[in-house]
Amino acid sequence: MVEMHAYPSGTPAWVDLRTSDVDDARRFYSGLFGWTVDAPDPAHHDSTAGMLGGKMVAGLGPLTDHSAPAWMTYIAVDNAESTAKKAIGAGATVEQEVTDVAGAGRVAAFLDPVGASFGIWQAVDHPYAELVNEPNTLCWNELTTRDIDTARDFYRAVFGWGVRTNPFEGTVYTEWKLGEHSVGGMIQMTDDWPDDIPPHWMTYFAVDDCDASADHAEELGGKVLDPPMDFPPGRFAVVSDPQGAVFSILEMADE
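The chain above was modelled as a monomer; its predicted structure follows.
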């Protein structure tokens, strides 16, 4: 069990689903990952959390605008206001001003210069994802973009991330580095990617069996967009939930 109590500033540390049907999302994700998902809480903007073993692993809540259902990656910060100023100065567009979430922390959301949405989270009483890197929990966050140079410069300026790059299937894969630790990834979209896929942060959830989980997602009303395939970290698939929010599942390699 990988239990987390705090995250260094600059570490992706929480994911949150914004959806057009919270009740059906509760059904789908509890069925797929075995989460306990309580009814939405009006005191928290009708949001709720996926729980595993009594620990928070992800958030679920209603859409607040006319955007499409999606998973959002939140990056831990020590000070939301100062990070917001850095992000704006580096070229981000504000999607949500720094806001207090009662009994939890301070949150803001941005569109980065390559067009991908991300959030920042300054913890108060909410310690981010309390379980990670084990089956049915968050295990990786990955920026997908056609402009890795602009993205690299932006996230370096805001969070101090370094990079390590490697060739990967005709493109380039980048690991985001915070000191010596890899905290996420970035993949460059090639001309083979459909034009209608926008830049985005992809959420990966670990699973015991990628093929079985992909099949189960379809049984629950989701769609498998990219079928299970092998790559160096393990075996993964890309899935859409019944409302259209896209995420990936990853069966980690034994080593």
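Residues 138-252 form a domain with the 2,3-Dihydroxybiphenyl 1,2-Dioxygenase; domain 1 fold (CATH 3.10.180.10).
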